[in-house]
Amino acid sequence: MTVPADHSAALPAVVVSSRAARRLAGGFMWVYSNEIEKRDEPDEPVYWCRFVHERRTVATGYFNRHSLIAGRAVARGDVGDLNRLLDDRLLWAFSQRLPLEKGRSARLVFSEADLLPGLVVDFFPPDAVIQSNTAGMDLMLTRLTERLPVLIERVFQVSLRGLVLRCDSAVRRLEAVESFRKVVCGDPAVLARAEVYEDGVRYAADLVAGQKTGFFLDQRVNRLNFGALVREMTSARVLDLFCYSGGWGLRALKAGVAHVAFVDESRDALGLVERGLAANGVVPERAGLHHGDVFDFLARREDSYDAVVADPPAFVKSRKNLPQAVKAYQKLNRLAWRRLKPGGVLFACSCSHHLAESDFLGLLAEAVAKEHGLAHVIYRGGPAEDHPVLLSMPETSYLKCMGIRKLAAV
Q1: Is 235 helix (H, G, I), strand (E, B) or coil?
Q2: What is the C-alpha separation between 232 and 104, in angstroms, rounded?
Q3: Alpha carbons 204 and 214: distance in angstroms, whole number
Q4: Of 37, 67, 168, 192, whose Cβ has the fewest other Cβ atoms within 10 Å?
Q5: Regarding beta strands 69-76 and 56-64, do their DSSP bridges make them parallel or antiparallel, or are they unpaired?
Q6: Beta bridge partners of residue 305, listed in sequence order
Q7: Which of 49, 243, 349, 351 is an active site residue?
Q8: Phi and psi of 351, rounded to 5°?
Q9: 167 is catalytic
Q10: Residues 46 and 188 in one domain
């Protein structure tokens, strides 16, 4: 479907229930399939529309008849020009990231939290990555690829060298839409060997085929706090589990720790760590790279560490598998605890939005108790400031980072 440029009255109508209308009016941006009462029937399964209740347009957004989250709102009421709305939304989101230190990477658009559901834009100067997670946002990709370079240059005074479309997240299967990647502009070989600068540390990134958009920007503040903590532990040995490109371990090495063991089941990820070690001038003796399953590594090794980071991918894919995920988090953190020296620090993370912070803290407490241990909570963190939480959408709050110190037996 071609998105109309000017008259929102030309958009098909989707009639929603009174409950959905109240939630949309209150800032909730999703409409579930069982809240749809009636709709116009364009030929396309996905289209931009007006969400209507009692003959009044409650919101404008897009509809996908294949998804349980059938509607996603982008604006309250009618919208006269969707292209202008997109520009305005992007400029507003960019303005929330100012001032941005020259050369620093940032998430410029964070989906619902920036009122653009389904869209993520990560900025790795001089490159950028667009991630579309919904079929509805796919309809705007042509406009996005045209306007994003113009607006980034206007706001950040950076001419984009490369722009990548990463429409390959697992959530797209729930939208019944195909996954794909595309280099819009730039040299694919250069984009696959990008470098991310973060507060004195250089990280290797593959913006074309790496995980997510190529680098995990959301942990920036937590990594900085971890670095400040281990800076006082110059002879420390650190264990970085599910290390990917070495975000935590490279920060610790920059802070001056003696040695970091990096563990990941992906050889490609460890290749990124190797590049990061070289970029930061780390001598080989200060790092060990271990390829394999993290749980197997923890179970078979008996080494002890002054600091351990457990930052796994999301174990909770949906609410129905929450009990199994809780068991997995407990097992991981029990095994990590066993590798920790008395007085050492465990940074435990979860990026599962279905798992509340209180429940995560509770399962950590249970894990420590089962190991007959005692711990102080020394740090609580969430996502970096460029990953805002929209109050009306609790789903935008997902990342938990807990630092606990292992107390000696008393």
Answers
A1: coil
A2: 26
A3: 9
A4: 37
A5: antiparallel
A6: 340
A7: 351
A8: -110, 25
A9: no
A10: no
